[in-house]
Amino acid sequence: MEPSLDLWFKREILPHEGALLRYLYRVWPRRDDITDLRQETYARVFESARLSRPSNPNAFLFATARNLMTDRLRRERVVSIEAVGDIEELNVLIDELTPERRSIARQEFKRLANAFDRLPAKCREVIWLRRVQEFSQREVAVHLAITESAVEKHISRAVRLLNADLRSESGAGALMDAEDLGFEKSHGTQQPD
Known about the structure:
Blueprint: H1 3-12, H2 17-27, H3 34-51, H4 57-83, H5 99-118, H6 121-132, H7 137-144, H8 148-170
Helix pairs in contact: 2-3, 3-4, 5-8, 6-8, 7-8
């Protein structure tokens, strides 16, 4: 390791550790991951600084942490969708399903996954956090640094887009409507849990 890089890191990055930890605890839902997130953030900052030192180390540190969390969420989304991609792995009344119904269920799941992937990034992220990760509306807002009103708007838009996408694919009607996703149909906001 270069002595000057080590000194730069100690002087410019490590003094922000308390603020970084507070930020991670505030926005990341799984407390067990915080230490790993901090270390990986430090490793990314250090490796990047080998090539070029950022002009604003504090901002670079927090941008790196934010990007790392975004990468983890994306990876989890892909893994989670793939993990349940085979309907037989769900163990939900599999024995009672006919081969035809299994085939239809696989096709419907694939259509839903494709429609979900076509959602705008923010809508997809909000729906994922709210309905799959089971964050409260407030937790989604804090996690994404947006207002609760913005969370509602993204949910409403996502439900509308999913319905439109699924209707256009099926011809006759959507596979599910807003109520199936756990939202009120009339105005797209969430029903109380």
